[in-house]
Structures are given as structure tokens and as C-alpha cells.
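Subject: sequence -> C-alpha cells, single chain

Hey, anyone have a minute? Need the predicted structure for the following. Not urgent.
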Amino acid sequence: MVDTICMLPWESFTVTMNNNFRPCCRFQTTEGVLAEDYDEAFKQLRRDMLDGKKDPRCRKCWEEEACGQPSMRTHANEFHGLEFKKEWLTENFRKPVHIELSIDNTCNLQCRMCSSRFSSKLLKRDKWLVENHDHLDFHVAKVEKSRYETLKDMKIDWSELRSVKLLGGEPFLSPNFLDFLYFLDMRTDISNVNLEIVTNCTMKMTEEITEILNQFKYVYLYGSFDGLPEHSMYQRVGSDWYQNFDHFLEYGELLKNRQMSVHQTFTVINVSHIDEALELYKPHTDTVSWSYDDYKFSFLQAPDWFEEWVLLRTNNKKLRGIFKSRKYDHIGWHRTLHTIDTFDRYYNTSLEKANPELHEALRINTKRYVDAHKRPPTRDCYYCDLIDEM
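Reply:
Had a minute. Here:
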């Protein structure tokens, strides 16, 4: 039988920003359901996995495994002990062994690929985009009460909890961060719990935070840095790479049982230097991981020339495998180019300064497209409108 089982639908849930539940963060937010419906909603997924069927919603893990890379699925199966539990699995949810949530959307950065749903700092920007550039398809998010408040109201058996992953906003900035850690401490033995924290490293770690983090069994701390310093500061608006990386190194000195990792998000903006970016962090971390944006700045909607240009600069096997699913989207690509230009004007930044090689490649190839593009007599053309605005 094909190995298709992932333990997460049986022993894990991820709480979305609108307080719905899904098996993991790689499922679309729209796949989330009310907490009381979680077991029933994903019974078919569990049945299919037991029957050896691959679910298309798990494609990112299948992509990684096809390239010979470990995936979230393989890591989860090892952590949850699939080898010892497989014969006992049914279509029903067991108990939470792992949970993942963004406590709230309190944040101090304005990352270009993010939105007001995940960063309170982006509310003003997203309102401006909706009012002035509605064709770029941004939305102003109304975030529900804290995910921590949602869990407080639920009757959950925490006895087998062994892993918690906290995302942002920015956890170290959140007024709910310490409250949530104390909430866990009162309901389970946190010395048996691994804690994952994803942080932008803009905040120094206080004594109180350090003290309780060192009570957990192990802390996996992921610093979010997106590529080379100039690329990272451009993509993560408001960040100071040099100061933030100093904070990251300081975290490693303060924490006892810990694994220090850097996680990078690659987009159209920074993927051209993926090899250098991965090498930059290796001497300073225990692990380096990365993912790719499949939203506003996705390179999977780019034209052929962009893939060829990037792959000439890298031998990264995982990236080459991901590019196999690229499908050129005319409207999506030109919307991305327009978004880059619009953000530069809004933030008073410059792609040309941050990544001059990319800027030149876009200039040359966009001009070729404009020169080859036939404008219809009616002038009612989405591409022409975008090109004129750019």
C-alpha cells in the first residue's frame, strides 16, 4: 500500500485567524471548520489516508518528498510515532498531541507578502490599497478574538499534549503570549512539551519570558529572515536585519534546551539568490528551512523567462522540483509587477536598490512583452491598463 498516512489529522489541529480548525497550516484557511465539527469534517481525509489515497491538499509535502526532501508529513509521523500507532488508527480524531496557532495578529512589521489578517501593522496599508488600488485584490481583515481565548473556552483533554507551535503576528510582542504559556502550564506538564516559536526577532527577550521558556522540554526557535540582508529588509518592511540577527543570536545564549533555526520565505523578490541566502545562515544556526509564497508574490505564476533566469543561478533541487508546478498566469504576473511598483511608492523603497539584478531582468523582459503586445482597437485591455500604470 502507498504510504499516504500523516498523523496530523488524527492528533493535531491548527487554529486559523478566524478561530476555525484545520489539520495543519498547509491546508487553506477556507478548509477550516468550527471546533465542534473538526472530528467529523476530516473523517473522509483520514479514511482516504488509510486507503492509500493522496489528498491534493497535501501537495506541498508530496512535492518535497518527490525531491527526496523530508516533509512536514514525514517529520510529524516520526514525532507522533506512526510506526507504533498505525494499526490502531480509525477514521476518528484521537487527542491533541500537537497544536498550532497564531495567538493574535499583533505585529510591528509590514511584510510585503503578509496581510492585515496576520499583522496589525498592515491595517492602514490594506485600507489604502482597497481604496486606491482595488484591482490588486487586497482585503482588510477583521481578526476575531485571540486564539488563546478560544481554547480557554473549550473542554480539551491536554494530557497527551507534547508539542505547541506559536506563530504571529509577533509572539514576543503579543500581550497574550505569556498568558498562553501560563495557561498551558496550569493544564499540563510543560516539561514534557516541545514549544516551537516563529519570531521576527525584533524584540529582546525579557527575563520573565526566558524563565518560562526554559521550563519547556525543548524550544525550537525559528527566526524569520528572508534571504540576504538587503532582500530581507526590503521584503520585511520595518525590519533591521543586523539588529534582529543579533537578537536571534542572543536568544540562543539565553535558552537552555533549544534548537535555533532560520526560516526563509522565498518570493519573486528574493528567490534569485536562494543559494547564497541558504549558505549565509548555516554557520550560525542548527538548521535552515524555507518555504515559498503562493499568494501575491508567487513565482509559480511567472513566465518562462523568469524560471529560466532563476534556475541558471541555482542548483537547489527542491526549488527545481517546485518550479515543475509553475503555470504562467498573465493577469496574476502583471498584478504582481504592479503590486511591487505600488508598494515601492507606498513605502518609498526601491526594488532596484534591493535587488538590482532582478530589477534589470524585469525591465528588459517587461519591455519585450510591451513591444510584442498588440493593443486592441477598443483599448479595453487589462494588460494595457497595468502597463500604463507601471
